[in-house]
Amino acid sequence: MTFSQRLAQAARMLEARLARILDEAAAGGAPPRLVAAMRHAALGGEAKRLRPFLVLECAALFGVAAEAALPAAAALECVHCYSLVHDDLPAMDNDDLRRGKPTVHKAFDEWTAILAGDALLTMAFALLAAPQTHADPALRVELAAGLAAAAGAGGMLGGQCLDLEADKLGVPQRPSEAHVKRLQAMKTGVLIRFACEAGGILGRAAPEQRRALIVYGERLGAAFQIADDLLDTHGDAAVMGKAARKDRGKATLVSVLGAQAAKARLATLEGEARAALDSFGERADILQEAARFVVTRQM
Amino acid sequence: MTFSQRLAQAARMLEARLARILDEAAAGGAPPRLVAAMRHAALGGEAKRLRPFLVLECAALFGVAAEAALPAAAALECVHCYSLVHDDLPAMDNDDLRRGKPTVHKAFDEWTAILAGDALLTMAFALLAAPQTHADPALRVELAAGLAAAAGAGGMLGGQCLDLEADKLGVPQRPSEAHVKRLQAMKTGVLIRFACEAGGILGRAAPEQRRALIVYGERLGAAFQIADDLLDTHGDAAVMGKAARKDRGKATLVSVLGAQAAKARLATLEGEARAALDSFGERADILQEAARFVVTRQM
User: Fold this and answer.
1) What is the pLDDT of residues B22-75, one digit of tens each?
2) How far apart are CA B187 and CA B156, in angstroms?
3) Distance CA B123, CA A145 (A)
4) B152 and A119: CB-CB below 8 Å?
5) How far is B209 from B276, CA to CA, in rounded Å?
6) Does residue A249 belong to the interface with chain B, where contact is any CB pair within 8 Å?
7) A 184-213: CB under 8 A from B
8) Chain B environment of A153 (Cβ under 8 Å)
9) Which CATH number covers residue B48?
10) In terms of CA atoms, which chain A residue is nearest residue B179?
């Protein structure tokens, strides 16, 4: 199976699992409108499902079957989807298009979008806490703690705050390279890093293996953001499924360093990500290819 | 110590703990603006801290010290505070005043309010997952699962969705008593019920004791909402610390049944809440008083 086929297969499995989880939410008494908005946010479209793919593949390094890693993978994807729903709101990035579909507040309305995002975030923790995720409660609570740290004020939400401060308030006036790196590490890096770590947690990785996955995830996350920024600068909306050049006013490593230096940094990050996998040998071939894929095209 | 003193003492303890938790978030790299908005949402003002009070007092039935129950109590209060921040947004209830202070989107702006709410929700799960909450990970994960269910699409968020559907979309056109009861049970009842259950979880209550706390919490939650609606119909903004009669267009048990029948229902609920505590004897005196307090004045 080629890398792209494997990625697509993971996306299909994830999509099916998310659909089932949302069916269960509806059966459990969640209002139809709210579930419909959650479905709109979480299902279909052109999502590559990078984060759940990384959970599955990193868990697979330790012999964990995809089926067993799927609930945790779905939880991470719920957090990613919620963050997109809220980021797209008029008060935030004000986007009309996402993954080739109208954003949730366009397809429904703002209050429904806010609630659907909240509900996806809450569902992520319901998933991690449920026995289906793993038989060992200590492992489940470790996943929940890790996700809360990655997604919280010191992680993804903190990065989003720094990004919007720069965009809306012009703070700081001239973002330094260090500031942009920190912002991006928080905004997108930490959740991608945690996706890799979560696979290790599910596989009961030894400490040094877990550290290797964290390094891999961190470099991959940083590379992902630079590739995204390069695409945003040069891409077009049809390829991306969202508005291009929407980040024009935002500080990125492309705007701070220039495209050439950003591309060089991307190559360095790819090398570091790959090197982190050395100890896993050819078991990690698919993750090696993922590093290549992230730097060469937008996922 | 009188009931009011005990309630005030719990509020002070909770406030101090929340302040410390937010200091730790700031020290952990959360951006100052985000932490300031979280502080605005979670600290000060005129909050009675009913939910954490219930966690502490229900845990105390089983000999759990307040200090030991405080992290879980703080987690529930974070969820309550986040729900207020998002409910107050222009796209939702559009309120300018909360607990005698400007709402978060008034004191800051909408995007900051959305992120601060998201961050408080995420922090609630970080708190529950942390070893400080309880030494036993199985117990922590049970608390996290319970909170996610209570706060999620089948609970608080579902109730908020039904409420806004009625308010903004006029669906259903004539809400039945059953519809309003379901809406209110979800919107406010489930979290209050879970506050009581969480105390029982912390105290490793026997199944029948836990059921008793759930019945108590459920009746208390329903009574709380009716008392709130009566106060909203007849109260004034100075007493409430928020705009009065803001629920004029919303279906409540007061609007559906009339004030007299709503008051009769309140008395029934108080009796049922008190009866549920019978097996605890005088150990539950303070919770008996809490039932009285909830029906006689707005907390």
Assistant:
1) 999 999 999 999 999 999 999 986 889 999 999 999 999 999 999 999 999 999
2) 4
3) 10
4) yes
5) 9
6) no
7) 186
8) 25, 28, 30-31, 34-35, 38, 119, 122-123
9) 1.10.600.10
10) A31
pLDDT digits (tens, 9 = 90+) for B102-134: 999 999 999 999 999 999 999 999 999 999 999
Q: Are A76 and A124 in contact (CB under 8 A)?
A: yes
DSSP summary character for residue B25 = H
The per-residue DSSP string of A81-115 comes to HHHHHHHTSTTTT--SEETTEE-HHHHS-HHHHHH
Q: Locate all alpha helices (DSSP H) within chain B, ordered by sequence.
A: 3-27, 32-42, 50-60, 66-87, 104-107, 110-129, 137-151, 156-164, 177-184, 190-202, 207-234, 237-240, 253-257, 259-276, 285-296
In one-letter notation, the amino acid at residue A44 is: G
| Number of domains composing chain B | 1
Asked casually if ipTM beats, i.e. exceeds, 0.85, the reply is yes
What's the rounded Cα separation, in Å, for the pair B121 and B141?
Answer: 16
List Cβ neighbours of A266 (8 Å cut-off, separation of 6 or more): A223, A226, A227, A230, A295
* Token code pair at residue B249: 């267009």
What HEC string does A236-277 produce?
CHHHHCCCCCCCCCCCCHHHHHCHHHHHHHHHHHHHHHHHHC
Q: Does A35 touch chain B (CB under 8 A)?
A: yes
Q: What is the rounded CA–CA span in Å between residue B149 and residue B50? A: 19
More confident residue, B1 or A24: A24
Give per-residue pLDDT as tens, A17-27: 999 999 999 99
3-state secondary structure of B236: coil
Whole-structure pTM value: 0.96
Which domain covers residue A112, as residue numbers?
3-296
Residue A251 pLDDT grade (very low, low, confident, very high; cuts 50, 70, 90): confident
